[in-house]
Amino acid sequence: MLLACLLIVGLGGAANACAQARFGLSDYEPKNFSDPRVAQLGIHLARDVVPWNAVLRPSDRAEVTAWLTAVKHARGTLIPFITFEHASNNGRAPSPGQYLHAFLKFRKLFPWVKEFSPWDEANHASQPTARHPRLAAEYYNVLASHCPGCEVAAPDLLDSDANFERWALEFAHYAHPYPKIWPFNPYTSIGTDNPSRIEQMLRAVRGQIWFSEVGGLVWWKFRGRLIYHGLVYSERVAHNIFKLAELSSRITRIYYYHWRSPGLPGHGPKKARWDAGLIDTYGRARPALWVVAKELHRHIQGTIPKVF
Predict the structure, then answer these.
(1) Is residue 222 part of a domain?
(2) Which of 37, 129, 170, 287 could form a disulfide with 133 if both were Cys (CB 3.0 to 4.6 A apart)?
(3) In this structure, are residues 146 and 107 in contact, taking their beta carbons and an 8 Å threshold?
């Protein structure tokens, strides 16, 4: 059964209801973590994807600093999980030496951050690591050997690319030590309510599986075309996420992407390519948020906070 350590505020006092926080937000907007509903849901986990050389470029450094500051000062306790990706100004793969140099700078600036993954969606064709699992393993080895006391996960893998099993096995051959955690983006699985690819991942690797990015898409852009799914689809996918997370006790975390809708295409942030927000652009709860709230509170005596 999916359990979450929840700290609920405003229900006749604080109630702490179990042992481990399991649900978090994969969200890149710092302001979203100040929404009081995030704390009321009992969310203790936060994930961001940042360029591997973010601290070496002033604009990127400012963004990651703002995000980590918001997480650090949010209501309740939020544990940041940082996943690195290609540089914001180009998609080329850095050498392991360049990667190490940037990571040591990151550690010096943010020594309190303890959870990392070396690359985002590393098996996807758009990534420089897609055909080079060994290179991704070298990045992983850099993190593992230069971050004592840290939780270093394997690279994030995407289930829509059928190569994820072969990629993971080749990566693991060069990774030292063998990863205890495997981040996984099961977008295809949750969209179809089909467990086969998640089961395939569970068979392929040892250790924990984290759903490092999942969410019910309302709309998204693909090759210049707008694809609209709607709120009913988003709600159904939210149900699927929790259902599929119960396939194995080895699935220990869920990071939902994301909190607030960017608005309609062309009206939100220019870089917005999709909308899987739990609240709309005006801050109103969407049906998917009710699903999340009910799942996270189903083991607690009481009702969902009135703010919802």
Answers:
(1) no
(2) 170
(3) yes
